[in-house]
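Please, structure for the following, as tokens.
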Amino acid sequence: MILHEVVKDERKRRGWSLAELARRTGLSKAILVKLENQQSNPQWGTIVSIFGAFEIPVWKGILEMHRDELEEPCTCEYKAAVRMILPEARFCPYCGKKPRGDA
């Protein structure tokens, strides 16, 4: 999944219109339309505002965007893709276990 899919799917799942998401994020409806239609590359602050409105931690939103790259999340091998996406992570974001080799 990529950002525009995550945003559109989550917005629809919650039953929110674009106007409602705009109200909750403080962003313009035009920015959100461009984002959902893949017509823009949002700035970091835009991403943070959107995930904040959804009450989703940014790291979980980023993981959701990269879920396809994670190959069977949590058989708990702490996949290399997780470390690549979240290099500062010291645990599996799916189950909480520490990766092999970490103390």
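The CA atoms of residues 59 and 86 lie 8 Å apart. The mean pLDDT is 77.
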